[in-house]
Amino acid sequence: MGSDMSEARREETPGDVAASLATAALALARRFAQGGTLWCWAPGAPHHAQHVAVEFVHPVIVGTRALPAVALDDNDTVAAVRVGARPGDALLVVADAGAPVVDTMRRAAVWGLLTVWMGWGPQPAEVAVDHLLWVGDDECARHDGRVVRGYHVLWELTHVCFEHPGLLDTAAEPTACVTCSDEGRLAEVIGALDVGATAAVRTSAGVETVDTTLVGPVQPGDLVLVHAGSAITVVEP
Amino acid sequence: MTDFLYPFIERNERDGGALIDDLARSAETKMEMSVALRQSTLATLAADLHAAADAIAQRFAGGGRLYAFGNGGSATDAAGVAALFSRPPSGRSFPARSLVADQAVLTALANDVGYELVFSRQLISTATSTDIAFGLSTSGSSANLLRAFAEARRLGLLTIGLAGYDGGSMAAAGTVDHCLVVRSDSVHRIQEVQSAVVFELWQLVQSLSEPVGAHVH
Q1: How large is the ipTM?
Q2: pLDDT of residue A169
Q3: Which residue has the higher pLDDT, B5 or B59?
Q4: I want to staple B192 with a disulfide (CB 3.0 to 4.6 A). Which of A35, A105, A149, A157 is the partner?
Q5: Which residue of B lies nearest to A144 if distances are taken between CA atoms?
């Protein structure tokens, strides 16, 4: 037998992921209702990202509204999302726990995106993501229809949410941005304005200027923790 | 459902908890339907799958290449077929590629000769009688797939077709050597189970082929 994958196959446990799909679908529907775009990225398997995007853009069920979704490829994905996405958008990553996606999702959250990670195999231990949707215990899930089923159901549930407009126009969905009360916020450095003194940074609220005297010179792309208008530490990638 | 009588109820709805519960139940039901359809399909198609895999393995053994094609979600699934056979997670690699991968070729053909011919024209320019045409459709009736299968048959290719519903025109065309039908009327459930069918085919082809190391790559 050329394949050792069939041996790894486990029993189906659809119930495990159903509740996660439900909460993710409502959050995603809220983003769409507010004008958000869904960015889809499946590192190493771009056809999955394209499949998700075409579901939303050109629905197979007549009468279902078309929603904005974009498939990303592996060509400098961070740069593509950084320049294309707006606060209020969403990023869906389709990848296993070993894929290099954590940094991109963390930055996406800094830019104000809802982050959803659909994966299979061993689950990541600790990850900063809004919704974790684990659709299978083994890597065969990527090929045998379980991942497809996962994003199909996510699409179907998202459209069910549109039948409940009262639950969608709640603009006060809590985002990562806690407007600087006593908490630090992550921000991405766009560039130093006055080297060692101030820098322009991007947060979920937009572009702002912060004091960098505490952290010293910063580079474009650095993630910094901002508190009361000052960068207080540079976060290691 | 009496929702249409009381639209204001939805507009004023504020408790997301009930909806979340409904969505979770719905998700579970859909996934269970998918699992059941996969199990019944793989059982029903068992003999057909073995025959198709055997034919594919023979073509690969004879130096044949596989060309996968489809439209929309099925185009992405065709790309998945090409990736699974050519860059497998384990086992042997086989020459396989998607006829939807090159935007220049696809748009040139669509613009100049028509969308119905985007796959058949590529087969004419590329394929030989030792190759494999692998088309995926949910309806089974996409015009460009039917044209591609007709051309593939004329050229002497092995023709493999995945369809849904009752197989559509693909099942009746007489140009598909192995027509594998996922009998459902849900496009989503059909595509999910078509992926399972592809995966099963791939495993069978691997088991029917000489192991890695028997050939120099």
Answers
A1: 0.92
A2: 81
A3: B59
A4: A149
A5: B196
